[in-house]
Amino acid sequence: MSESVIFIDRTDAAEQLAAGLQEYQGRHPLILVIPRGAVPMGKILAERLHGELDIVLAHKLASPFNPEFAIGAIDETGWVYLPDTTEDDEDTIAMIETIKERQLAELKQRRLRYTPFMHPIDPQGRIVIVVDDGLATGATMIAALHAVRAKQPAELICAIPIAASDSLEKITPLVDKVVCLHETWHFGVISQFYALFAQVDDEEVSQILAASNGD
């Protein structure tokens, strides 16, 4: 494995995260994962901690000039995190509105696709652990945490195997606790820290969620 590789795969990362979250075992935590990559990890965490599994939907707002670059993120309610927007630039505002509408429609389709026969589990008054397979810019996680916090959980935890140090600094004030196994200032892409980083497709997500909720 290369020097940057820390985890064998997402299963390895999830098992290590579960060990770091042992204080929540038996307290019926709600594990909310950001699809798609983190969903298999969430399944493992829910099993190890004796909790419930569901998804929290947020999506990056991709730059029209570079689809891989996130200019922000949006949650299911339409709330948008835009860290570097020039709000007096009318062209920029119009472009962002177009991107927002497209991504919000996609989030609604994902909800129907992933959990067609169940309502989202209510986080109110619950210990909620929001999980992703890594934290790069942090934009999607910030949108996800905003959506969950608005529903008044008793405790909100962000759990991630690997994070960019500057992004972790943005996340920390938004939660009651962060469980991060490794952080680094030398962050390229999340996949660089995994020896195996297989794509997780929509069908796998749907199957895991259906099995976890007894459908």
From TrEMBL:
Could you confirm whether the keyword Transferase appears in this record? yes
Provide the alphabetized UniProt keywords: Glycosyltransferase, Transferase
- What are the protein's GO molecular function terms? glycosyltransferase activity
Q: Which residues form the Phosphoribosyltransferase domain?
A: 13-188
Pfam annotation, one family? Pribosyltran
Q: Which superkingdom?
A: Bacteria
Write the protein's name: Putative phosphoribosyltransferase
User: Which species is listed as the source?
Assistant: Herminiimonas fonticola
